[in-house]
Amino acid sequence: MRILLADDDRELAQLLRDFLVREGFDVALAHSADAAVAAARAEPFDALVLDIMMPGRTGLDALRELRRESAVPVLMLTALGEDIDRILGLELGADDYIPKPCNPRELAARLRAVLRRARGEGGEALTDLRNGPIWLRAASRSVSVDGQPITLTATEFDLLALLMREAGRAVSKERISQSVLGRALGPFDRSIDVHVSNLRRKLGDAPDGGSPITTIPRNGYLLRRLGEEE
Q1: Angstrom distance (rounded) from CA 136 to CA 145
Q2: Are strands 2-6 and 171-172 parallel, antiparallel or unpaired?
Q3: Taking residues 102-117, what's their average pLDDT?
Q4: Average pLDDT score over residue span 86-94
Q5: Which has the closest alpha carbon to 155: 127, 113, 124?
Q6: Cα 88 from chain centroid?
Q7: Is the peptide bond before 212 cis (omega within 30 degrees of 0)?
Q8: Which residue of 51, 108, 175, 199 has the fewest CB atoms within a 10 Å radius of its CB?
């Protein structure tokens, strides 16, 4: 499990690296957004941990640039209480976030969870699924709409898989958070809403011009049945 950890706080980065190495991770360090982008392009990593607040270009800048070319799982380190930064990170394609100062054990647990999602491990057994123009293929963890492939993060893929398995039925945010993010939904946590918004944008409109995903007030989200399999 090769991890890139980017944080300009060198002492903290080294402490986190030492802990993660003891937990079985292979960790490389970067101390700026530019260094993180260069490292991510130079060698393959299983996941990235990007601090948002770095001097010069931020972790959000690095994420924005990397998402143009890669769907590698990304965790954002965010200052405690900085909800706007968290939401923006998720909108740019981060898989999850963890507030600073963070517990190293929680960081390791979040990394394992996002890596399991990226590998398709855990959760319910997945088979190929179709809903109208949307095709989800389990073995390759790929999705196409009207025959055109779309790029999803590991979190977005698992979210779509859950909604497709339950097509026509509402799925609560609490269940989505536990099943997709591997954690309980916090009282002010908007992660699920942002991931759904990203997924809606990538799926585009349904054949009737509406969104394939419907918001169910005070309940969650529902993927509409878009047509019978041919």
Answers
A1: 9
A2: unpaired
A3: 90
A4: 90
A5: 113
A6: 13
A7: no
A8: 175
Whether residue 14 has pLDDT greater than 60: yes
Residue carrying structure tokens 């394992």:
112
> d(Cα 191, Cα 90) in Å, to the nearest integer?
7
DSSP assignment, residue 229? -
pLDDT tens profile 116-168? 887 776 556 678 999 999 999 988 889 999 999 999 998 999 999 999 999 99
Residue 2 is given by DSSP the state E
Distance CA 169, CA 149 (A): 25
Amino acid occupying residue 10: R
Q: How many CA atoms lie within 13 A of 136 on its CB side?
A: 22
CB of 129 closer than 8 Å to CB of 94: no
R_g (Cα) of the chain, nearest Å: 18
